[in-house]
Amino acid sequence: MRYQVTKKRILITLLLSLLALLIVGFSLDVFIDSETNSFNQSGMGLIVLLLILGCYAQSVEVRMHPIVNAVWIGISFVALPFIMVHVIEYLSGHDVSLLPDVRFALNFFWCQLVYALLFALTNHYRWSVILGSVVCFLVGGINHFVQLFRGSPFQISDILAVGTAADVAGNYIIAINYDLLLTGSITFLAVSLAILAEFHCKRRDWKRVTASVVLLGYIVSSAAYFYSDSFWSKHNLTIDYWNPIYSYTNNGTMLSFAMGAKSMRAEKPQGYSAAMVQQTTADMLEGENANISELGMGVKLLNTSGSSVRYTADRVSASTTSSSIQSPNIIAIMNESYADLHMLGDFSTTLPVMNYFKSLNKNTIKGNLSVSTLGGGTCNTEFEFLTGLSMAFLPSGVMAYSQYINDDLESMATILSEQGYTSIAFHPGKATSWGRDKVYPNLGFEAFYTTEDMENPEYMRGAYVSDASDYEYVIQLFEEKEQDEKLFLFNVTIQNHGGYVLDTIGIPEWVAMRGEYRKYNQAEQYLSLMRASDMALKELIGYFQKVDEPTMIVFFGDHQPNVESAFIEDLKGKPLTAFDMDDVQERYTVPFFIWCNYDIEEAYYESISVNYLSTLAMEVAGVELPVYNQYLSRLYETLPAVNALGYRDSEGVWHYFREENALTPYLNGYELVQYDYLFGGRNRVDTLYQVN
Known about the structure:
The protein is 48% helix and 12% strand. By secondary structure, it is of the alpha/beta class. It folds into 3 domains: 1-63; 64-262, no CATH class; 274-689, Alkaline Phosphatase, subunit A. The strands form 5 sheets. Strands 8-7-11-5-12-13-6-14 form an 8-stranded mixed β-sheet, sandwiched between helices. A 3-stranded antiparallel β-sheet has the order 15-16-17. Helix 2 packs parallel to helix 8 (178-194). 43% of the residues are buried. Mean pLDDT is 84; it is low at 287-296 and 298-323.
């Protein structure tokens, strides 16, 4: 073994040293403890030492004996994946020592597979080592920030939504912290030592070709075996869909990420056929010629005495026909991150947050809405609302807009358009977010308006159009329609979007929490935004109260916000890892209401999931429904809430999907019909989803 210093190596070392110096220099605040105001000298010293050793390794060129060189390469292909597993888990906030041996080995396997694939593709040892380490580090780093901002781990479906992520990334503060510096320094040193070796042979030498072929064969065969049902069964590999953070902690990040790929494909339900779909809907409707007037959403209400009563079909009919109102204008507003955090636990604030929403009772149907996403994934709530489909029967982690709406598909927009409505959509953001510019036309919307169509909108936190400005444009679109034109307007707001660490520019009043909760600044910013939303809502309803045309407003949140996990744990009095099904479902619950500027009977829904909400709204509006929506109306009486995490029975008990009980046939039937709706192809029973 011979060491040699060259001018090229010295130059590389100087550049790397300068870069390392700048990184550490601009990150000095990272080493200051905010609570004690003390400087972490040992932590900084460790990071500087790792960087110096890495830079020194770059300064020398090592000539190894061929046998030593080969051994070094072999050790590197084992040591690097081993190190990167620890790096990824550290960045993800997991204790790698708690991983069972089999799961650690599988995480190691997937890291090693990254290096092997890159070597097979590049046929260059050093590039495969460098790029492989970068890929693994990025997985850990991205998961670190995704968990911080969204409260859920980085999943393979997020890659498909990279465009949407890029649209909002600038509105989050992505800062270097101690964990990133430490793991980055360890990675840099490991790579610097690994690339001391070299794979010596000509570019097209048989050794390179043979190595690539062997590695590709290993990759393909290993991946095929990993994704086999027998392998999963043998090693008891499962994904906890309703608590993905727990799943990632239990399985490891790389393994969980890879496992997600298997669940991306929607499987054909057992027994699926067009005839079975028709039979399922006919059985639910008690005959093929069932009339919607005989149906109604079977919902639990609370009367003034607090006792439960049943909301029957007769009461639905009475509420919608008492004023002889048919086919009112319908404005559906999905308010970004709109939620009532008080349902998670008691806390007090310096200013009221949702006073107007809570006071809204006359001519109002309201209650609790179960959704399938938390802290992000807005498009999935849109998908469930507009189509009446459920994320429960789609693979975990998918983004329905990105993966399934690639062609024309019936929706609330098409149903209403077939009955003389003009269906338009509005979102005060980028048209390309979640691919809405392509999805909305496929769902039957005739026009789509964005922030580019607004004149001088008001912004909050410098990045997001305010709800007040959003509603002003909603009113503008309403006023621009023809007098005899029936309007369906679907609006997705943006004011309350996540990233509650930005400045407070545009927030009219700051809502502070009292007592022990005063320390949670993210939660306070969110509550301040909610107060602004409440005041904007008051103005919106106030305008339509004065409108002569019968108009309905359907209002709901897409998901709860991702604020400090410690705040949620304090409210619930237990760590997130100890949450049971009821606790988790509380985090997947948001408010909703249906308000009309004409007389309807008031009601309170104890529980309903978003896949039913459009059907309920159209029932109350008195429009004709396709057989599919009639089916949903009846199904609600048995399964009042279904989301990606589980389902709730008519007695208010939440169940896991893996449970076998009397409700299983109803779930299976719903899955059959949904599969036909989305994936039926030539066998699809089109007549079920269209107005006669």
